[in-house]
Amino acid sequence: MLQINIIRDNPQEIIKRLSVKNFDAKELVEKIISLDAQRRETQKKLDDNLSEANSIAKEIGVLFKSGKTTEANALKEKTTVLKISAKELSESLQITEKELNETLVLLPNLPHPSIPKGKGADDNLIVSEEGDIPMLGENSIAHWDLALKYGIIDFETGVKITGAGFPIYKGKGAKLQRALINFFLDNATEKGYAECQPPFVVNADSAYGTGQLPDKEGQMYFVSADNLYLIPTAEVPITNIYRDVILKAGDLPVKNTAYSACFRREAGSYGKDVRGLNRLHQFDKVEIVQVVHPEKSYEVLEEMKDYVAGLLRKLELPFRVLKLCGGDMSFASAWTYDLEVYSAAQQKWLEVSSVSNFETFQSNRLKLRFREGDGKPQLAHTLNGSALALPRIVAALLENNQTPGGIKIPKALIPYTGFEIIN
RNA sequence: GGAGAGAUGGCAGAGUGGUCGAAUGCGGCGGUCUCGAAAACCGUUGUUCGCCUUCCGGCGAACCGGGGGUUCGAAUCCCCCUCUCUCCGCCA
Hints:
Layout: H1 4-9, H2 11-18, H3 26-65, H4 69-104, E1 125-130, H5 143-150, E2 153-154, H6 155-161, E3 168-169, H7 172-190, E4 194-195, E5 201-202, H8 204-209, E6 222-223, E7 228-230, H9 235-240, E8 245-248, E9 254-263, E10 282-292, H10 297-314, E11 319-323, E12 335-343, E13 348-359, H11 361-366, E14 368-371, E15 377-379, E16 381-389, H12 390-400, E17 402-403, E18 406-408, H13 414-417, E19 421-422
Parallel strand pairs: 4-9, 8-14
Antiparallel strand pairs: 1-11, 2-3, 5-7, 6-7, 9-10, 10-16, 11-12, 12-13, 13-16, 14-15, 17-18, 18-19
The structure holds one RNA strand.
């Protein structure tokens, strides 16, 4: 959520910058400015009203104490009018505030000035590309066939017990999952991220805090008996640790990492790139999150992007880094890098990580602040990134490393799998 | 699931209708003392919104789990909700 004072002070600038995200903010901004003015006017009236009522109440107290009951009762009548208008004003204030807030959350985050406009994925900038695209032989097959061939992922049984998008990993497939999770967590920990295990379900306040609500309600599984949401990413619980928290400047940067299963309904995406592991309803992911000083956030964004790139390098996967254009960026992000690995049998790039700087967009909703010395609390910047999402990594590992003798495990992973080949 | 207890400032913990944003202690910050530190002593110490102010700041409003009510006046009384704890039952 954008800060109201920024909108108030630079409405034209806001509209201009949001147009980079192909978002026409003109009407919303105008509405916000008018609601804001209305809110302040009503608040002033209400405060004056209450102030008067308070001082009369005090007078009455003093009069009663000194036994001047008649005078006190006379004053009571004066408050009747005040009470009625106070009630009206406070109701009107509540309505205005609610409407203002509901409008405010409809505005996406401002893209960083360096973000190019663009229609969609085709307009993203390729920042770097690295690693050799494997030249597979004639007989190379896609990962869903490899999974079947080696008996390591069972899509069919997953359909039986739950539905499409919930595969069962078996044998070396299951072991590979566990190995990747540990590999990612160990790397993150080494890099200074504190590991934690968050809840996999969250309440509405948390989902709202990181921006899943109200924007992406349809993407989350909802447990109606308890009003809880299954997390679409560990970002939600991890970032919400700091909801309503005022940190000391010395506590920054806060670096956390967590493994979690991630649940996504992926409503409306059927039939498109959903084969095999490409898009699942439940998948595993290790997430990294940082809470940083505003002056440091872009430095940290680079550092996080480089860290994720380093993981892909260790896994010996060919990858490229994209800087997303305005049209492809998420609602809450100010700057996003996507990292994609090349999956050689499918012959396509698969997104395995998204590293974003949200600046104060999340912290404003979360009321995540920090204090420098005796200064006033100010909003921190939040960033997060996948490091990494497993299924597409597995897809690329299977496809790229297939040989007539089986699938080779990259060197860095062997200490974690305990085997060198899947055959 | 059943029964009971509770929710107050960073923490602990008073406060059951009238200058209570809230005693006291601890912690934090500043100072005195000291070569320095500890101890001791003195002072200070929340957040949000609005109005005013060039800075410092000033004034007003709100906040004692959340929402509603009674009252001239609510942390304090009433109602609803949420959460936590204890005991019993069940159970990984």
